[in-house]
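2024-03-11 09:14:02 INFO worker-7 job=invfold-0412 stage=load source=structure_tokens
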């Protein structure tokens, strides 16, 4: 079986590894390094940047833990310097190293990688126009045709743009332009208060920038668990962030070397830089899909079934281009499912009711499965318990009391339907709740596993115990 994969992000390269392992002849067509936007522009760079910002947690809490740095006795917050060029070099190097590691893994698995832009000519043929010099006659790139029994489209997404807010990469920035900065902005205006905006706001607040949010709704992170969003709002406020709520940007322009955001209600807000984080759009341009009659939705995303098949039988799609949930883990899961299905393995459709997501603010917000808000909107009955971290011994020792653990269980059975953790390392702490949700464990079962004392994870066990007593009458069977 020959498989041609267009796009080398987690949707594409994870699929390639599965298909090669199953004995298929696999070619990936990608227009940049392997790992895609995820590794080169989005997940890996933004989390590396945030890791530098996390250094401030140690600096900030050290004096209250009795540790003072030389030359700064008694300072509540030690003086610091942010070397943005060094941080950005580290971000860049780390992303490239990660991309190279993936390339090694993929080529070791026997996958052929072709650098270029792919276009689908018919349900079994992809034409590749090489990027770079292409190695063609006279140095001119020569297109190549790749035939496959099946094609997987995993072309990802790009930052959404507004015609009235053209980015210039210097003052008015998209999320990709952030890495060009060599100095911490004096005043960063972030348009869009979703996950991406909140993460960059977290980093640049820590680096000492003044940050203003332009939030179109009455709160930041409007699609997140409301209690979680309120914790982050509170932390942001304490760190000096200003949030303009119910404020829709109508136009963004550069005036001299500053950026000005014009709001729909006539107000304006000005900063040294403006960052647009207004969502992502699926990347289908130039793929030649129109003449294939492939089904897309109103956002232009490829419509797929439970095993990632599009409306054209030999063409599968995975990741952001399907716009289901724009997450690396989802892209990888869709890609693997597609290949197992294609290659004749029995596959279960992806468990959309157990997807994990983290927003890497400080503290982080990690969620899994059903949210309290979604349960209320859809009339699904749930019992909810929320345990603040302030009472957790480890949180006290670390002087990191902001946050909570929230668990949702179905009444009667006590099955865990979802959860949220707001804590420093919520991205890792969500793991036991994810296991419980995926494997449909009960609150009682979750509460009986051992957790380290003292640990943040102890709060998950404690919350599960309280929920089990309430829902199941006892925390034991
Ligand atoms: C700032 C930011 C931070 C994020 N952080 C996280 C996070 O921490 N965790 C998380 O789970 N998700 C995160 N995401 C989302 C995550 O990046 C995406 O969900 C993920 O990259 C999707 O993977 P993919 O394989 O669909 O596409 P991508 O990773 O976008 O890869 C697609 C690749 O295909 C290439 N391509 C496109 N068209 C063609 C063509 N015609 N021919 C050849 N190649 C083509 C693209 O250039 C790209 O290299 C973040 C997103 C953003 C914007």
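2024-03-11 09:14:09 INFO worker-7 stage=emit residues=477
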């Amino acid at each position: 079986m020959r498989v041609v994969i267009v796009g080398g992000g987690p949707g594409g390269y994870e699929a390639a590894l599965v298909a090669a392992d199953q004995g298929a002849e696999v070619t990936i067509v990608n227009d940049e390094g392997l790992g895609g936007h995820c590794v080169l522009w989005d997940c890996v760079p933004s989390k590396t940047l945030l890791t530098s910002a996390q250094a401030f947690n140690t600096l900030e809490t050290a004096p209250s833990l009795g540790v003072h740095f030389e030359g700064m006795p008694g300072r509540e917050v030690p003086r610091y310097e942010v070397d943005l060029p060094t941080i950005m070099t580290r971000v860049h190097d780390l992303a490239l190293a990660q991309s190279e590691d993936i390339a090694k893994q993929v080529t070791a698995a026997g996958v052929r990688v072709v650098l270029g832009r792919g276009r689908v000519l018919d349900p079994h043929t992809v034409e590749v126009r090489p990027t770079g010099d292409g190695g063609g006659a006279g140095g001119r790139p020569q297109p190549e045709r790749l035939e496959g029994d099946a094609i997987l489209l995993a072309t990802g997404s790009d930052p959404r743009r507004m015609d009235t807010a053209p980015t210039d990469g210097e003052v008015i920035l998209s999320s990709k332009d952030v890495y060009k900065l060599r100095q911490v902005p004096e005043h960063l205006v972030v348009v869009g208060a979703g996950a991406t905006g909140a993460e960059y706001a977290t980093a640049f607040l820590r680096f000492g920038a003044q940050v203003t949010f332009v939030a179109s709704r009455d709160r930041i992170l409007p699609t997140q668990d409301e209690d979680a969003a309120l914790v982050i709002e509170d932390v942001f406020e304490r760190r000096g962030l200003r949030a303009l709520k119910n404020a829709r940007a109508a136009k963004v322009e550069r005036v001299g070397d500053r950026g000005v955001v014009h709001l729909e209600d006539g107000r304006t807000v000005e900063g040294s830089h403006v960052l647009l984080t207004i969502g992502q759009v699926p990347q289908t341009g130039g793929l030649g899909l129109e003449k294939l009659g492939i089904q897309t939705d109103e956002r232009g995303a490829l419509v797929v079934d439970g095993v990632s098949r599009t409306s054209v039988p030999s063409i599968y799609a995975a990741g952001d281009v399907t716009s289901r949930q724009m997450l690396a883990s989802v892209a990888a899961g869709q890609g693997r499912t597609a290949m197992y299905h294609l290659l004749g393995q029995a596959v279960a459709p992806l468990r959309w009711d157990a997807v994990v997501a983290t927003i890497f603010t400080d503290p982080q917000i990690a969620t899994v499965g059903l949210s309290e808000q979604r349960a209320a909107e859809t009339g699904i009955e749930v019992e909810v318990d929320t345990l603040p971290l302030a009472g957790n011994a480890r949180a006290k020792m670390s002087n990191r009391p902001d946050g909570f653990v929230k668990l949702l269980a179905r009444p009667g059975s006590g099955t865990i339907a979802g959860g949220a953790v707001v804590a420093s390392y919520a991205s890792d702490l969500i793991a036991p709740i994810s296991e419980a949700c995926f494997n449909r464990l009960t609150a009682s079962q979750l509460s009986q596993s051992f957790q380290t004392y003292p640990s943040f994870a102890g709060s998950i066990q404690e919350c599960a115990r309280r929920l089990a007593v309430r829902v199941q009458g006892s925390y034991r069977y």
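2024-03-11 09:14:09 INFO worker-7 stage=report msg="The pocket of flavin-adenine dinucleotide is lined by residues 6-12, 29-32, 36-38, 42-43, 46-47, 117-118, 154-157, 175, 196, 280, 283, 286-287, 319-321, 326-329, 331 (CB under 6 Å)."
2024-03-11 09:14:10 INFO worker-7 job finished
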